[in-house]
Write a structure and sequence with these properties.
This is C2H2-type domain-containing protein. By secondary structure, the chain is of the alpha+beta class. The chain contains 7 helices and 14 strands.
Length: 200
């Protein structure tokens, strides 16, 4: 029995708190705020998932390879990679995907669609994460903090590259000499010096 009905649509719920969460999707109300980056959410459980992106907590473990994940959904997606299950296929090329979200994002490469628009400068992007990263260039927000030295970054990949420096990890090798680097931009800048030397 589901006695609680949404006033905006016909969806019904068996508990009122679930109805209240659902209604906030219609109204746009987001009462749950992240204290670290100030992003807001309409459900408490989504805020709790989001907090793991800051804390690094990964409570879901793959039984096949011991990889850890922040959400059960991410774990289930990972397990599909072990089983080889890929339900979604690109109609333009041979790419295959485990979830439809990734397929839709991939399709925009072919179509050129950029549905996510910056409200500050009207720049458009093919994915929401790209838009969010761009908006931080306007706001100066740096929500990703290094646990070793408190340095802060606007993009998570920049933090990951920074942490490699602490770990001494330098997996990328110059094709012209024995120099090694922790991230690709540094490698590419270094290799340019070789190309300049050759042109002289």
């Amino acid at each position: 029995e589901k006695p609680f009905k949404c006033e905006f649509c016909d969806t019904r719920f068996n508990r009122k708190p679930l109805l209240n969460d659902h209604i906030r999707m219609h109204t746009g109300e987001k009462p749950y705020k992240c204290e670290i980056c100030e992003e807001r959410f309409h459900q408490k459980r989504i805020l709790q998932k989001h907090m793991r992106s800051h804390t690094g907590e990964k409570p879901f473990t793959c039984e096949l390879c011991a990889a850890k994940f922040t959400t059960n959904g991410a774990l289930q997606l990972h397990i599909k990679k072990h089983t080889g299950e890929s339900n979604f296929h690109c109609v333009f090329c041979s790419a295959k995907f485990f979830v439809i979200y990734d397929l839709n994002r991939h399709l925009r490469i072919h179509t050129g669609e950029k549905p996510f628009k910056c409200e500050i400068c009207d720049a458009k992007f093919s994915s929401k994460p790209n838009l969010q990263g761009h908006v931080r260039t306007h706001t100066g927000e740096k929500p990703f903090q290094c646990e070793f030295c408190n340095a802060r970054f606007s993009h998570k990949p920049h933090l990951k590259n920074h942490i490699k420096n602490h770990a001494g990890e330098r997996p990328l090798k110059c094709e012209f000499c024995d120099a090694r680097f922790s991230h690709k931009p540094a490698l590419l800048n270094h290799e340019k010096t070789h190309k300049v030397e050759k042109s002289l």
